[in-house]
UniProtKB/TrEMBL annotation:
Alphabetized InterPro entries for the sequence: Acyl_CoA_acyltransferase, GNAT_dom, YpeA/RimI_acetyltransf
A GO MF label: acyltransferase activity, transferring groups other than amino-acyl groups
Keyword terms: Acyltransferase, Transferase
Lineage: Bacteria, Pseudomonadati, Pseudomonadota, Alphaproteobacteria, Acetobacterales
Keyword Transferase attached: yes
Entry's transmembrane regions: none
Keyword Glycoprotein among UniProt keywords: no
Protein name: GNAT family N-acetyltransferase
Domain N-acetyltransferase, chain residue ranges per copy: 1-152
Amino acid sequence: MAARPVIAAGGRHVGALLAALHRAAFPPAECWDEAAMAAVLAMPGVLVGLGSLGEESVPGGFVIGRVAADEAEILTLAVTGTARRRGLGRALLDWMASQVAAHGAGRLILEVSAGNDAARALYRGAGFTEIGRRRAYYPDGSDALVLERVWVGQEPAAL
């Protein structure tokens, strides 16, 4: 039986842990270090979810989002190799959608590398649609796809 993802809210004190998870999930040129995490965590409206699988004590991923008025943005979502394809990414997305909806947002946006097929499939399966493209956005030269999920007037889980 597969372990059920468990998501818990994080705070400003988890910057070092988030940086380590980010290093484990992204190519070196795209990693956020502890100083970058501290800067992001200090921004107004930021929400952090830490995810683990079942009874595992070490998180296998996290999501950072930010609410501004009636919309929100996922700033980063990271799932480490051993936790991938086990439902944790989707659980983190759903957790963030419910959190930002509770804060009054009716729209959630994010960026993903056009070359990240696994992440694109995850976001498509969670109801995100492409609304734009940023050419040569990432250090490797790949484009960033801008995606959104809208639920104005509905609960995000109903999508």
